[in-house]
Amino acid sequence: MSELLSKYKTVKEEEVSVWFKVAPVSAFPNDGGSCVKYKDLQIAVFNFSRLNKWYACQNLSPEKLENVLSRGMLGDHKGIPKIACPLHKRTFSLESGENLNGDLDAIAIYPVKIESDFVYVGFSE
User: Fold this and answer.
1) Gap between the Cα atoms of 93 and 2, Å rounded
2) Long-range contacts from 85-92, C-beta under 8 angstroms, 24+ separation
3) Nearest to 41 by CA among 63, 13, 28, 22
């Protein structure tokens, strides 16, 4: 695993010690993503408005090590919300981070909450 990828670790909601206030809900496109920076991490945040849910994951594509996942296409695979990398169309579960093509390591997933029309992403540090 590259040093760059090793900085990203999935955070479960019960592990959150910091809720990072990202931006107002209105700053995010419906059924699309935006990239936010937290310390030295780039995080892709998605407003999956068709499902009325929010997701966050590392923005770094594990295949080419480019920060592009926030520009990927949202969809679902057998009911699992997913993001498709815009470079090579590999897909990842937005719930578990699992590579749904089965040929790459999982990506890091982060909890999201909405409070008073602001988006927050959870981190464990």
Assistant:
1) 21
2) 85/61, 87/61, 87/63, 88/61, 88/63, 88/64, 90/61, 90/63, 92/57
3) 22
Token code pair at residue 77: 């695979």
Q: What is the pLDDT along the chain (125 residues), one digit of tens a residue?
A: 588 889 999 999 999 999 999 999 999 999 999 999 999 999 999 999 999 999 999 999 998 899 999 999 999 988 899 999 999 899 999 999 999 988 889 999 999 999 999 999 999 98
| This prediction's pTM | 0.95
Q: Which residue has the tokens 């594509």?
A: 61
For residues 70 and 45, the answer to whether their CB atoms sit within 8 Å is: yes
